Amino acid sequence: MSRPELDRRLTDLRQRLPQMRQQNPHDSDFWAAFSHETRSLSRDTLSAEDTSWLQNRIVSILATP
Q: Residue 38 — φ and ψ, nearest 5°?
């Protein structure tokens, strides 16, 4: 997956995060849903640089209130 495609999907994930939290009020349910979403992003073979970039973006999404 190209970085622009990853960026598009991460932007979509960030926009859906409040809805995911509302639909999964229990922490374990939220983390299972979030993990499912992020796992699909990293299934492709990514370079070390892209993997690091992806991980940093995920951390940034989670840090956003």
A: -75, -30
pLDDT on residue 14: 95
Q: How far apart are CA 24 and CA 8, in angstroms?
A: 23
Which amino acid appears at position 28 of this protein?
S
Q: In terms of C-beta density within 10 A (0-12 exposed, 13-18 middle, 19 or more buried), how is residue 1 classed? A: middle
How does pLDDT run across 4-49, given as a tens digit for each residue? 999 999 999 999 999 999 999 999 999 999 999 888 887 777 888 9
Q: What is the DSSP string of 9-61?
A: HHHHHHHHHHHHHHH--SHHHHHHHHHHHHHHHSSS---HHHHHHHHHHHHHH
